[in-house]
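User: Predict the structure for this protein chain, please.
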Amino acid sequence: MYFFIFCNDKPDHQAVRKDNREAHLAYLDKFRDQVVVVGPTLTDDQGGMNGSVLLMDFTDRDAVDAFLAGDPYGQAGLFDSVTVRPWRKVIPED
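Assistant: Here is the predicted structure, written as structure tokens:
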């Protein structure tokens, strides 16, 4: 099942993001088979990152929660909020 995950960074936490980026990317690499698409959201001027969007394939919400608990960004306290929603692909059809 697909899950849409939106993580909104805390204000003024760019240094936390930068300091944990390599560990975060290495962590994501362990879930490569479950990644549909992943990337940061950007500031309006596109000069900085201020959040993350992940579309991932997990068996259930418990698996999502376990994934999020292990994410170095989350462990470092980067996120102000995290929204998780089950998601269904409609277009284009497989």
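The longest strand covers residues 49-57.
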